[in-house]
Amino acid sequence: MSRKLNGIPNNIIDSLFSTLRYEDKGYVDDWVVSVMKKHDLREAKLDVMKVEATPPHLAIKPILSNLRSVQHVIENELKANGFPSDYISEAIIEINYDPTLPAGTFYPENWEAEKTFYAKATVTDIEGNKYEMLEKAIHSFENVELE
Q: What is the pTM of this model?
């Protein structure tokens, strides 16, 4: 296990859900929240390396096309740290969404639970080592109208 790669999971999340990832009518996080709300989903997984989404409701162009480009984030991180480009065998993003969380002790009064989800990335290298991060709150900006 290499300490040099500990930052990859956080870099994946920061890249995928950044304001640089605008597609069609919204950012990737907007698309995720809109799909989760429309289909009443609470959990989902995105597979960065296979470019797949579970459940398949999330397998839409704005999400999948950005998953593909996140692969470059991994490749660049590996190259910068002297690892071969195929050193990472798996990169999974777990998403948890609960639009019913109330404002209160742990949340500010202007809390918008219906626009917030939690994401965590786990990366596995070819030797079986896992690199994980703590779950991170992601706040979407706008509601995207889904067809």
A: 0.89
